[in-house]
Amino acid sequence: MSAFEPAHVDYVVPPPSEAADALEYVLGVVSDPANALLLAGGTLAALLALAGATYARGRVPDLAVLADTLDGYRDLVPWMLRLSVGLPTLGAGFAGYYLSPAVPTGSVSEALTAAYPDVLAPLVAPPVVRLLLIGVGFALLTGFLTRATAAVGALLWLTVVPVAPDLLLAMEYPVLFGALVLTGGGRPSADEMFARVAQAEGTYYRRIDPLGEWPRRVRTALIPARRYLPTLLRVGLGGAFVFLGVTQKLLDPARAALVVEKYGLTGVVPVEPGMWVVGAGLTEAGLGLLLLAGLFTRGGAALAFVVLTTTLFGLPDDPVLAHVSVFGLASAVFTLGAGPLSLDRLLADRLASRGDAGRAEGDPAATGD
């Protein structure tokens, strides 16, 4: 069901005239025998899918080939991240909202001025805020001073979220900014081009290079943390899905039901609107929990990719640009996999140790003979 339900209901419908009690609404839906049967069937199907995926792990060679292929794309991840955060940041600046369409730049300026009147008032006029976003977005798209620009972007989000809580709808941004601090611009990027010119013998730029050894020193200092890049991205994507499934669906069912009514979603899948809301919320939250745990991570990222793709192209007035960041985040998680601190890594290590033991004992299945 979630494939037809927009992740950010705030972007496509106004607040309902009368709010519903979330717990009462959900209990009313699940207490209906037909709905309870549908939920039980959906849960059983999900468990069977997980069991099938568990059985296929280490037994289906196609999955190993797919994983090896995706590992070959790792050097493209910085470029992927820059596009996925640079485009929507640049677009937000031109469109007049602060990363999330639910947060106009004018309201951000007012909130910051009220919170810090003596410090920020001259610096947070709406045109200045929009220019900041445009500058950050453009620099990330070109890959210019990527780490420093990403740090500024993270600071812009962290500074504003206390006075504009709706910015949590764009909670993937600090994750993407943090990831770019770890990876740098990658290639192709302006950073790489300038670095190559600065390193070449006899170039004029080498003589005046203002950065000198700093890029190399920062890159070297961040090497130990870079192994956690897949973990950061996975947790960010999983947290976003849990947050949106719970807050946008299960805790705000009346507004989510307006989305179902607006787009006639009961004509797509013939269930009552309440079942759409609860089913979508539970699906997104469940998917998010799988990603947080790092279990079947690439499969979960692929499912997230499908959900977001259907949202982007299935709903005519959903702001596409506002979803590009999550779309890119899912793509990066699909490419990199679970990373450290995940159940996938734990299971892979166990399979590897079992295979080593089999080879030591002359097990034909372990050697592939």
TrEMBL record:
Keyword terms: Cell membrane, Membrane, Transmembrane, Transmembrane helix
GO cellular component: plasma membrane
Membrane topology of the entry: Multi-pass membrane protein
Cell location: Cell membrane
Regions that span the bilayer: 36-58, 79-99, 119-141, 148-171, 285-308, 320-343
Pfam families: DoxX (PF07681)
Transmembrane as UniProt keyword: yes
Protein name (database record): DoxX family membrane protein
Organism: Halosegnis marinus
Upper taxonomic lineage: Archaea, Methanobacteriati, Methanobacteriota, Stenosarchaea group, Halobacteria
